[in-house]
Specification:
This protein is an alpha/beta fold. It is about 20% helix and about 25% strand.
């Protein structure tokens, strides 16, 4: 399954799962300062969070330092925040918790356990992919929630691809996940290159650092039986 929207269709069809990928917002002027840019983008990102049925205080975001640390977030009772040192987040899927990852060429990897309800969201660029951070997320989900790779569905966001970059993150991530036990038919990739579509996405490489960030969101609304 390929395409800008269809890569999330299977996850969104799962009862209670809320997922989206916020693309480029053309009317917002961005800069090389990541945090200044994120501040400018935040009102639009807050709207996306609201549209999924969550509040900004429900959102947990990884700091993203291009390493392989995956952190389990609290099940309930704690407001979301930026998790220092983490490039991946997992949750048992309690209602109201929302995971967020920013990307601008790297891949966002969405993971849904169709049996236990657990969720994972990972930022996987070149270094993260080399360190198999998506597999680290699977290991964390197995240890924390008893997740079986055979019950997982995965979606891989738009990311930079050859010939604009020498590494195909999406293909490597899929290979790693298949080797870890996820059936190939349960892994869905956007197939789109961020660098080739800067009208639709942000690309750190093509825009030479003066760029924004897309926002990947994944959460679970237990009382919602229809896709958002």
């Amino acid at each position: 399954m390929t395409g800008a929207l269809s890569f999330l269709e299977r996850l969104r069809a799962r009862g209670g799962v809320s997922a989206c990928f916020v693309p480029r917002i053309p009317e917002i002027t961005v800069s090389r300062d990541k945090w200044d840019t994120l501040e400018k983008l935040q009102p639009a990102h807050e709207e996306a969070v609201k549209d999924l049925g969550f509040g900004w205080n429900n959102l947990w975001r990884a700091e993203q330092i291009h390493e392989d640390l995956v952190v389990q977030i609290p099940a309930e009772g704690v407001e979301g925040k930026i998790v220092e040192g983490a490039d991946g987040l997992v949750t048992c899927g309690t209602e109201g918790s929302l995971l967020g990852i920013y990307v601008a060429d790297c891949a966002a990897v969405y993971i849904c356990d169709c049996h236990t309800g657990a969720l994972g969201l990972v930022h996987s660029g070149r270094r993260g992919t080399e360190q198999e951070i998506a597999v680290r997320a699977l290991e964390k989900m197995r240890a924390a929630y008893g997740s079986d790779p055979r019950n997982l569905e995965v979606a891989i966001s738009p990311c930079i691809r050859p010939p604009l970059y020498e590494v195909d993150f999406s293909s490597l991530i899929a290979e790693q996940l298949i080797k870890a036990g996820i059936p190939s038919g349960q892994i869905f990739s956007s197939g789109e290159c961020t660098g080739a579509r800067v009208d639709r996405y942000y690309s750190y490489r093509v825009e030479r650092g003066k760029t924004g960030r897309m926002l990947a969101l994944l959460g679970r609304r237990i009382n919602n039986t229809e896709p958002v």
